[in-house]
Amino acid sequence: MCKNIKLLVYFILLMSLLVGTTFADLNDGLIAYYPFNGNANDESGNNLHCTINGATEQLAQSELRIESRRLAGWRQFCDLVN
To answer: What would the pLDDT profile of 54-78 be if each residue is shown by its tens digit?
Structure first.
């Protein structure tokens, strides 16, 4: 009986957490999106493309596509020209 009451209390607590949850729209207020899929083009639609200077490519685990850029030091940056 005590186990059933604990289970009921946990279930009610879980449901109360889900009721108050709001989901954010990731595109709302998005300024730029750079997936670094071989270039530094903005894919948000705002055309805020970058020029990469001195950064090295970091390969994905599959070694098939570039997923990031390493900006690790002096004179390595993404130049955003508008």
So the answer is: 766 665 555 555 566 667 777 777 7
Structural tokens at position 67: 């997923």
Distance CA 77, CA 54 (A): 7
Q: 3-state DSSP helix/strand/coil percent for the chain, to nearest 5?
A: 20, 20, 55
The pair of structure tokens assigned to 62 is 């599959």
Residues 33 and 48: their CA atoms lie apart, in Å, by 9
**CA 65 – CA 36 distance, rounded (Å):** 10
In terms of pTM, does the model score above 0.70?
Answer: no
Q: How far is Cα 48 from Cα 31, in angstroms, rounded to an integer?
A: 8
